[in-house]
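note to self — DONT lose this again. spent like an hour looking for the file last time. sequence + predicted structure for the chain T wanted, 82 res
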Amino acid sequence: MVGQGQQIVSAQDIASAFNISMSLINFYTNLGLLEVFDRKGRGNKRYYLRPAVEHRLQIISEMKRRGFPLRLIQESLHREQS
């Protein structure tokens, strides 16, 4: 269930909003760094909760900027999630 104020957006919307490629969105999703909210339509189009994805992309970006490897970023985000 989507809470009040939660906006559902497509992967393409996220890529456009953050000026990143769809390949990077897919890569992060496949690593478990971004959580898919729903899949619909032809091609199993992915949808995300915008606030959650924005938060995670900000964390990923900051940790990458500081030189953290993806493995540590994954661990950090998984700890945050549990």
